[in-house]
Amino acid sequence: MALRLLHFADLHLDRSFAPQRLFGVAAQRRREDLRAALQRILERADHEQVDLITCAGDLFDHDHITRETAIFLAQTLGQTSRPVLIAPGHSDPAIASSPYRYLRWPANVTVATHEDLRPYVYGGVSVWTAGFNPANTSETPLAHTPSLGDGAHLLLLHASDMHTVPDGVTPVAPIVQAQVEQAGFRHALLGHYHNAMSQGLLTYPGSPEPLGWDETGRHCVALVAVGDDRNVSVELQDINHRRFVEETLDVTGMTTREQVRDAVLAARESRHLDGAVLRARLVGERTQSLDLDPRALALECNDGFAHLEFLDETRRIHDLEAVGSEFTSRGEMVRQLQAHRGDAEKDDTVGRALQLALDAFEP
Predict the structure, then answer these.
(1) CB atoms within 10 A of CB 281
(2) Closest among 22, 1, 16 to 225, alpha carbons compared
(3) How far apart are CA 82 and CA 77, in angstroms?
(4) Domain span at residue 311?
(5) Number of domains in the chain
(6) Nearest 5°: phi and psi at 21?
(7) Per the count of CB atoms within 10 A, which of 121, 204, 212, 266 is most buried?
């Protein structure tokens, strides 16, 4: 065996979870999850007895990383006896103010702060890499590929395979598999896409922990073996401890908050959601007597979840007869609208108007 390596990417230490509406303690716990993931990655590398650890960028979020986290990162990577090769990405570019520049990194850690492809040789295998170029995100890093020569060659980059761009992802440093093959690389170890995939000559391990509710795929490290015959094998191994999960709960027919809580606990059991970051959308029709205070519900039901939040998207059922008998502006409105009921089409329109109007009267 010429080389065994463990590849990961897109850890995003010190990430802000504000886009996920996670703040304070909830956000800090997710950031602690990311630190724990780094520890597991190094433990997996020890368990697999790899010769090299590679990271294809976005190891941290430059806009939010603290000096304390940067020191934690350097110290943690320095605790492994294995060499670590890092290709900075678009969230952690090796600009002048980056920890890649101002920290003294351990001897076993190499950061590709250069923007041109250069080889690093491990066990007879050349790993070609370059740091992300923040000045030109649309230029392909394979536009000027040097002559590779004999031997086995791997590519390590933070880049976008333009044939598999996920929905909602902005491509950076575009490449295609044909470029990788034509240049003579045996495989490309990539970062930028947060759901793991390995197709042909390209491998994305995904983010070690999911970073939002849109990341529903696998979250892995890639165990890569380069044989003496230069053939490459890739095994994706799941590494995440958390899941971001969205559930929809229909509360139609429920009369108490205990019933809602029982439905949440039943979903936790049936979907194996222990330790998940759960967003529960409450839908359906509910009576006036059913109290759905999202914060109170979250406190009552959060046992077993890493985080739980409720979104109330239910529609209240109003007692039109009772409201219409009131000597109030609300009652007068109901009486006036009820007087316009006629055929089925008009009834439907009046019904929607009544619903919207009565909802507007609620605090």
Answers:
(1) 15
(2) 1
(3) 9
(4) 244-316
(5) 3
(6) 60, 35
(7) 204
